[in-house]
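User: Is it possible to get a 3D structure for a protein together with its bound compound? The compound here is heme C. I've pasted both below.
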Amino acid sequence: MPDPAVDLVKVAQSVGRTSRKTCGDCHFNGGGGEAVKHGDMSRQLLDPERSCDIHMGGYDFQCSECHQTRNHKIAGRSTSVPVSEGGFSCEDCHGDQPHSCDSLLDPHLNKHSQTIACNTCHSPVYAKCKPTVVSWDWSKAGDKNRKPKNDKYGMKDYNWMKGEFVWIESGKPNYTWYNGSMKRVLLGDKIDIDAQMVNITEPVGSIKDPGSKISPFKFMEGTMSADLEHKILIVPHLFPKDKEDTTAYWKHTDWQKANVTGMQAAHLPYSGKFKWINTRMYWGIEHEVMPADMALSCVQCHESLKGERTCDRCHQDTREVDFKKIAQKGTDFSFMASKGRDVSHLIGTTDYIDFKALGYPGDPIIHGGRFKKLPMGYKPLQ
Ligand code: HEC
Ligand code: HEC
Ligand code: HEC
Ligand code: HEC
Ligand code: HEC
Ligand code: HEC
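Assistant: Yes, that's possible. Here is the predicted structure of the complex:
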């Protein structure tokens, strides 16, 4: 029952539609602070610029216009928590042939959409509006004398309660094959504590799986404690329950004590011995869609098209096609840099998604797509 002091009439009279603010009051702060865990959500989405998020900035979408809700079940799957109230996708609104064919490139773009997730092209950098945490080292916590330093974005690199942070703004996503399923390490699951990196969440998919698409993720890396004998992640007791609670880490900064009480509360065994291990979570990039004319262009992925002036390498020469205009403009990193975004290292990049890392022998225009060679028997220029 609510506290009798709560004015329930006032509460009832305040019920209204959800908004970016009502959802964002929780979700912009996932991970204990603004923009800590989600790489694509922050308070900037309250009133974003068009270039930051075309739906919420350009067209004033509320969250629930995409996350359509019935009986308080909010559609939309998370990449981190294994609860589900139903999923949805960009295709639900735009269809799987979203490019309407008023541009000569559209047949190519629609074909690419079978292999490449929309946001790989349409959200080529994450946290463009506000820095997000990409690395969180708990092992460094506890030093009350250490003065936090401001990084180049003005974000603090240290907090004695939580440890050391690395922030990034306008980060380039990590691209991997994803078929919509995630592998997750849940509380009490055995892990390989000697591994260089333990993936707590990890997309399932492969280049050979027709249901997989190349999809963008933010890596959230951490240094966390694991039980040496039981080989499970530790849940430390951090936050004091009340004034009398002296067993919490933030009271005594003693990991050993915090581990004992934390694991007890979680009903998990604790051997009394722990080590620090490196962990990684994959966070999907679902928001911050840029305006259409800022999507990745042909040349930003296909190095082999860089020197072309027309499309005549594969098609009949049509000189009225302005190749430069339609195939090279793409995501304008120079413009973004001029607006103060941290992207100057991305100006002029090609092979943006790194074909080799995704399992291709090289640029698919030369080596063929994942299931076949070019239908016209095209041979690369020597
Ligand atoms: C009181 C806090 C709170 C509010 C308000 C809130 N959420 Fe959540 N939501 C959570 C928590 C906690 C989770 C589970 C952990 C997570 O995903 O961060 C969650 C999960 C989700 C998920 C993933 C669900 C899944 O099945 O994987 C979506 C999508 C979502 N919320 C959207 C919304 C939208 C849209 C709104 C506004 C209509 C909203 N939330 C309002 C706290 C909140
Ligand atoms: C243009 C459409 C769109 C809008 C607007 C939108 N979202 Fe989403 N969101 C998505 C899509 C697509 C997914 C992935 C859904 C899925 O896979 O089922 C997603 C996923 C999420 C998730 C889960 C992410 C994760 O990996 O944990 C949360 C939480 C979420 N959205 C919250 C919000 C909130 C809060 C707002 C408003 C501030 C919002 N969304 C506005 C399209 C949208
Ligand atoms: C609830 C429906 C809905 C969902 C879900 C949705 N969109 Fe949209 N989107 C729209 C509408 C409506 C517009 C406005 C223009 C139009 O009708 O094309 C739009 C516009 C766009 C544009 C063109 C923007 C411009 O320059 O004017 C792009 C690109 C786009 N969406 C990509 C995406 C991607 C990528 C996703 C998934 C992350 C997504 N959309 C999810 C409804 C949706
Ligand atoms: C290979 C990169 C790529 C992929 C994948 C991709 N797009 Fe696009 N998209 C573009 C480019 C480039 C443009 C603008 C140029 C054009 O349409 O001629 C565009 C334009 C759009 C537009 C503006 C309207 C229109 O007809 O041009 C919408 C809406 C859109 N995309 C949605 C999506 C959705 C939804 C997906 C996933 C199903 C998707 N795109 C996948 C590159 C891509
Ligand atoms: C996000 C990176 C990306 C962008 C942008 C992109 N491509 Fe591709 N392209 C790919 C990938 C990945 C494949 C391999 C697809 C497969 O495995 O079937 C491919 C394959 C191709 C192929 C070979 C098709 C086949 O037969 O399998 C051609 C031709 C091509 N792209 C042309 C273009 C043109 C023209 C554009 C601009 C409209 C473009 N690409 C934009 C990533 C990209
Ligand atoms: C590396 C070779 C390659 C390049 C470069 C290339 N294309 Fe294509 N294009 C193809 C192939 C192959 C197809 C047939 C794809 C399919 O449906 O299997 C195609 C199909 C098309 C179609 C659809 C034609 C139809 O009748 O269905 C259009 C339009 C098109 N390309 C325009 C362009 C434009 C404009 C450019 C230059 C910006 C371009 N292409 C660059 C290989 C290429």
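Residues 20, 23-24, 27, 45, 55-56, 61, 63, 65-67, 76-80, 87-90, 283-284, 286-287 surround heme C (ligand 2) (CB under 6 Å). The longest strand covers residues 213-227.
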